[in-house]
Amino acid sequence: MKRYILVAILALMTLVGCKVGEGTERDPNGSKKMLWHRVYSSVYSAYYYGNFAVYSDIVLSNNKEALEVMKESFLLSDNYSVNVFEDKVVLRENISTYTYTEYTIETKGKRLEEGGVWVLYSERYTTKGSTKKLVGTFIGKEGEKGAFSYKHTQSDAVVNCDMSYLYSSNNSIDVTVSCAGKEDGKGYVIDFVTNLQAPLIFKNGKLCEGEIDITYKDSSNSVIHAFTTEVVGAASSPYRIDDIVIYK
Amino acid sequence: MKRLRLLLFTLLIVGTVSAQQRTVEHNPEDNTVKITRVIPKRVDMHDFRVGVGTGSFVTGLFLDRFLMPGTEVDYENKTSDRFDQNLAQADTYLTDAYFTGVYSLSYTYHSRRWFQFGATATFAAVTQSRRNSIDNSKIEDRSDYAVAVMPTARFVYLYREKVQLYSSVSLGVVFSEEVVPWVDFTLIGCTFGRKLFGFAELGCGIGGFGRIGIGYRFDAARKGKK
Questions:
Q1: Do B138 and B28 fall into the same domain?
Q2: Scanning A240, B95, B115, B167, which has its CA 20 to 30 A from the CA of B133?
Q3: Are A19 and B93 an interchain contact pair (Cβ–Cβ within 8 Å)?
Q4: Within this chain, do residues B121 and B215 fall inside the same structural domain, yes or no?
Q5: In terms of DSSP H, where are the helices of A62-206?
Q6: pLDDT for B137-174, tens place per residue?
Q7: How many of the other CB atoms lie within 10 Å of CB of B218?
Q8: Which domain holds residue B7?
Q9: Residue B51 clears pLDDT 90, i.e. is over it
Q10: Residue B76 pLDDT grade (very low, low, confident, very high; cuts 50, 70, 90)
Q11: How far is B171 from chain A (nearest CA, A)?
């Protein structure tokens, strides 16, 4: 009997240890995901304002069917509204009761395919007044329907884009983005460029196709990461971009 | 009859005291029984024990990840606001944190029936590491260790050959990130067995809340001692 008790004690002694905390997920693509998110944030900002230019151009084209399709993908909630004037298009984003931002594209009544040069301003209104700043410039390509270039600056990142849009008969507006950009951060540099053969394509506001080459260098200009992100599916939202890419 | 009752009562009391030396002399002339009990004051035995204990609140004071592993892990995974520093950790991951239990080794000398003294050493750890996500190589050891060395005084309430009940107090130092003086209590403990015995204790301190183990006791060499 005593022997059994002692054996039981010895067995219990091996079971005292236990897990006290969960570790983190092992993800071999962790750094690539971080870089893709970082680059996509800059590219999406440029695309968003470019999409506003697409909206404005469709307004000037008087294509009501295309405009209805565009409203659905561009005006994401009731907080957004668009007012059209003879020489400008104004997008209003309501942030709170007394705060809102207005984005104004001065079209001067000239379409992009006519070589129009549009300037985008943003003006933020609060109870203390308003502040206006230049966001970017869209340069239309004369003779090319729906094509333009745009330079966007966000924080430390600069993105130069060539964009074009196409309204197809199946009620889809495809926006094609070819871009190259650079983020100069503290102790690092990120360079990115879309593949010429596979530019980024947004269908009705959702990223569906494309490849983008990303290079990350440290402060000594040594390349730490260099890879290609390929979009293989349609994103369900602008934020669910991990599910639709593979890293090469 | 009165003497018989007295005899039976005496036998009942002294019968349970098995560790005592008892002689019974019967005098047929006057039909009396003389019972002599010799209770040695000194015991003169050694015992060695090895045991293991659960964690306790005190364990958490010395092993950071014992009580708050979740917040520690989340915080540590994103160490700074700098993108480049966070990116350097993005290809790494933290393993699960495991608590080993509190292992103890002790020696005690039984000097009196009611008092024993000796020393105890304990070891406890929470193990965790940071590894490379690509090749699973270890990058950083994030384990915490605590080693305690303490002289021990044990007070025995019930001293029998097969069973003992006791409490003890230990006062020594704990070696962890710093060297800290600390105290450990065994609130109530029990051993069962003669030479090879098992023990179970409830305590508070570095040794853990619940403790079990096995030990071995043997007579000390006696020369001229009673």
A1: no
A2: A240
A3: no
A4: yes
A5: 64-74
A6: 999 998 889 999 999 999 999 988 889 999 999 999 99
A7: 10
A8: 2-11+21-38
A9: yes
A10: very low
A11: 24
Q: Is residue B208 part of a domain?
A: yes
Q: Is the pLDDT of residue B6 over 90?
A: no
Distance in Å, alpha carbon of B224 to nearest chain A alpha carbon: 34
Domain membership of residue B188 (yes or no) is yes
Size of interface A-B (CB pairs under 8 A): 108
Residue A29: closest C-alpha in chain B: B91
Inter-chain CB proximity B87 and A5 less than 8 Å: no
Q: Are residues B148 and B58 in the same domain?
A: yes
User: Smallest CA–CA separation between A21 and chain B, in Å?
Assistant: 5
Closest Cβ opposite residue B84 in set A28, A30, A185: A185
Residue B212: C-alpha distances to residues A16, A68, A139, B61, B197 (Å) = 10, 75, 80, 22, 11
**pLDDT tier, B187 (very low <50, low <70, confident <90, very high otherwise):** very high
B34 and B105 share one domain? no
- Residue B16, pLDDT > 60, answer no
Question: Burial letters for B126-143: b for 16+ Cβ neighbours within 10 Å, e otherwise?
Answer: bbbbbbebeeeeeeeebe
Domain shared by B123 and B32, yes or no: no
Q: Give the N- to C-terminal CA distance of chain B in Å, as an integer.
A: 38
User: Which residues in chain A are closer than 8 Å to B83, comparing Cβ atoms?
Assistant: 34, 38, 185-186, 188
Q: State mean pLDDT over A114-140.
A: 90
Domain assignment present for residue B16? The answer is no
| Rounded average pLDDT over A116-125 | 91
The CATH number that applies at residue B119 is: 2.40.160.20
CB contact under 8 A, B87 and A216: yes
Q: Tell whether the model's pLDDT for residue B70 goes beyond 50.
A: no
Question: Which residue of B55, B83, B100 is in closest CB contact with A38?
Answer: B83
* B95 and B145 both lie in a single domain: yes
Helices A30-61, B83-90: axis angle to 10 degrees equals 120
Burial of B122 from C-beta contacts in 10 A (0-12 / 13-18 / 19+): buried
Q: What is the DSSP letter of B73?
A: H
**Residue scoring higher pLDDT (A238 or B203):** B203
pLDDT of residue B62: 81
| B225 within a domain of the structure (yes/no) | no
Is the CB of A18 less than 8 angstroms away from the CB of B192? no
Task: Closest CB to B99: pick one of A12, A18, A27.
Answer: A18
pLDDT (mean) for B35-51: 81
